[in-house]
Amino acid sequence: MGAALRSFFVPVPHQTVCVLQRFGKYTRTLTPGLNWKIPFVEEIAYEHSLKEQAFMIYAQNAVTKDNVIIQIDGVLYIQVDDPVKCSYGAQKPIDYAQILAQSVMRAEIGKLTLDQTFEEREKMNALILAGLSEAVQEWGLKCLRYEIKDIKVTENIRKAMNMEAEAERTKRTEILHSEAKQQSQINLAEGQRLSKILKAEGLAESIVIRSTATVQRIEAISSAMNSEEGDLAARFNLAEEYLDAFKKLEGKQVLVNSDVNNPKEVIKKALDMVDARLK
């Protein structure tokens, strides 16, 4: 009884489909769950997993646009999208997809230079995926993504690439050094310019302050001379200037009509000169 029931009912696992044929002709697709079939008339011809599957694309030689031979491999991620096409569209659709992936990869590598194959890996993945997706649709497959796994070059090419990279690093270092030196010179010149400007501004401000002080002093003396003790103030101011002039003669050999070592005589001489100028 149990065997008889099993011949009528077909349990299908999750994420799996079965293709049913009647007398060798496609009848329907069995979805996950419990399905029925006519014993001895219908049979399960194909069974497909709807899960994502990864397939290794083994290393192969390819020639870049600048005629460099490289070895490149990758990983192809595909999924059964149409079970009927996958069953009847090709004899071994997944194997064909892997062979096609190798062919498309070689074709795309031939469009790029060696440097571009390393710099534009994401772009290459996208181009290979686009070339595969259109072709495998007829086989009921869907290419989810393609990843280039490794790119290998010969030992001579690797040494040349290392030398080129070292030369590029040296050039960048020299450029940075020259730019830093140039910036340093610019900063130094700017600092000197600002220093001169500040000194000039300080000198101008000092001249203004001295001029203001001189004007205020003259005004004070003029005001004092108009007062009752103005003559005494003028005499004192002129005598003070006379003494300041004598102080500046210290350490110098100058012929004067006074004994500079005798303060009383110097002051008396200064006051006499002041009186002579006021008369």
Automatic annotation (TrEMBL):
Biological process, per Gene Ontology: mitochondrion organization
InterPro entries membership: Band7/mec-2_domain (IPR050710), Band_7 (IPR001107), Band_7/SPFH_dom_sf (IPR036013), STML2-like_C (IPR032435), Stomatin_HflK_fam (IPR001972)
Domain of life: Eukaryota
Primary localisation category: mitochondrion
SUPFAM superfamilies in UniProt: Band 7/SPFH domain (SSF117892)
CDD domains, per the entry: SPFH_paraslipin
Claim: Mitochondrion is one of the keywords in the record: yes
Gene3D superfamilies membership: Band 7 domain (3.30.479.30)
Keyword Mitochondrion: yes
GO cellular component, one term: membrane
Keywords, ordered alphabetically: Mitochondrion
Compartments where found: Mitochondrion
Residue span(s) of domain Band: 7-165
Membership in a protein family: Belongs to the band 7/mec-2 family.
The protein's name in its UniProt record: Band 7 domain-containing protein
